[in-house]
Every structure is written in C-alpha cells, then in structure tokens.
Amino acid sequence: DKMREAIRLRREQGMQSFLYFQSFELWDQYAEKHFADDIARGRSGGAHPAWYNCNLMNPDPAFGWGKYVAAQIARVPQEYPTLDGIFYDRDDYRYYDYAHDDGVTMDLDAPVYMLGFAQQQMNDVVTGVLREHKMGIFTNGPTSVEVVKHIDGVMCEMNSIAACLQYLGLARPMTLLPYFFDTKSYDATPRNTEEKIKSALGMGYFPSLTYGDELCKQIDARYKPLFALMKDREWVLSPRPLALPEGIGGNIFRTPNKNYLVAVIDFDKSVVAGDTPTQNVTVGINVPDAGRIRTCRLLSGDGLPEHTLPITREGNTVTATIPEHLMCSLVVFAE
Questions:
Q1: Is pTM beyond 0.90 here?
Q2: Are 178 and 157 within 8 A, CB to CB?
Q3: What is the pLDDT of residues 157-175, one digit of tens each?
Q4: Backbone phi, psi, residue 15, to 5°
C-alpha cells in the first residue's frame, strides 16, 4: 500500500505524517445525490459558497453527513495505525445555515444553525477518536476557543486573520502559511516573504517555507535562527510587560527554561528595498522575576552578528539597546 509505505519512509527520516481531512466541503454531485438534506443553505435557499465544485455541508454529528464523517474518522486509526495524525482543513466556517435550526440562533425572524456550533460537535467526535489512538490534530483557521479546544496546533492561511487567530495559540504551536491575493500565491516574492516573516515573528507563529525564488529562500534562511528559539514558547500575560519605541512593533514570549524572547519588528522597513536601519532601539521588559535576568543577547536576520547586549535595571524593568535594527530582531533576556 503506497500510503503505508510513505508513512514508514517518513518515519525513517524522522518525519511525521498527517492525513488530510475535513468535514465541511463535499463534491457537489455526491452531496446532492446522497446528502441533499444536509447541504447548508442561505436565506434565499441557495447553497453557500465553498471550494470549487463543492457544496458546504452542515456537519452536525446527528445528521446523515455528520454520521458519514464520523464513520470515516473511525476508520483512520484502523487503516493507518502508524499515522501521526490528521491535518483538519476548513475549520473556519461559521455561516448561518437557514435549512437547519440549532435551537439557539436567530437571524431576525428566522431560526438558523450557526455552523460553528456544528463544527464544535464534530470536532469533539474527531478528536475523541484520535486521542484514543494517541494521534495528533493540526487544523486550519478554527473559528473559536470552543472549536479549537482539543486541537494540538493551528495553521493560519491569511495574514488578514493572523492577528485574531494568534490568541488561539497561547499554549499551542501555530504555523503561518499566508496567501497573498496580489500575487495569487503563497509568498512567491521577496516582499511577500518579508511580510510573512514579520507577521510570524510578531505573533508567535512558525513561518511556512517560501514558494519563491532563491532570494526568497535566502530571506527565509536569514531569519530561521530566530524562530528556532520559539519552540514551546508561551505568551507573557503580566501587565505591560514590554516597552518599545514609537513606530516599532513586537511581542514578548517566555521559553520553557524561563528565558524571555522579545520580537522587535519594523513593519514599514524592508531589507530587499535597501532601507536605512534605525539606530539605538531601546527594548524594555517589565516582568515579576526580573531579578533573575543576568544576560541579554541579540539575534538579527538583518545582517548583524549574534552578540551580547549590556542591560540596565530599575525595579522589575530590564532594558537593553539594539545598536542597529532594520526589519526583524530577537532579543533574549536570560539568567
């Protein structure tokens, strides 16, 4: 079997295999023939927009289509017991389905079914089966805390929603694979690659590999050491933990060994455009355990070598200064 052999070969190379799966979109001819009653519909009775040649379905596990999906996921561990998990696509639909009633949602005078509620129930079924077999679940664009509650990791496919989805990744890994509508592609130009890197670093995502040319690959490689430190990062949620100069964006994370990572980003500047670096960018962190911090080092994809930065302290505030910053830097405060 080609699938089982592919899983085996990936494992030999230290890679994991995640099977593509989803519960919302179904080939339209098959849907209309076998599950017409479960097609989600708009107020006028027409089908909702979905992927090419597909109908958008209501995946409530009590409906015929939902039962079919549940039966499919139950077979996955049986057919592929060495599989590592699934990539659960299209976890993002939340239209109103006027052909069904969830018992709580109304649109003006019409009882409707908010599809996110159906997805939450289906996700409980899917994750329940996979958890029993110690398989993981990585999903694309979940709609809510409830939908994502048993999910291991999240992928975001658009920069426009990355800022919202980042809050679903406070305690789980997230991948950014942004589609750029101006180029009708994932990051295929150097400027798109830079935009991906900036968004990912500032919001705690891991960036996808570039789809671009050699220059795009060089940009990816230049900033890769910064993201290597972000594994298992957690958000810092204490009050006002980070101070940066006006015009500079960023975020602060904590690592499993209790170091602090400060992402420093200039969203207006570009390496490939040859912009001029900003001099002496001050980075201040305000954290309860500031007394532990003894060292600070700078990692920069902008061209500066990794080196130590001097620190000053005042109470729970520790400050360092980046001598030269262009696009993205990572400042590490450690014991």
A1: yes
A2: yes
A3: 998 899 999 999 988 999 9
A4: -105, 155
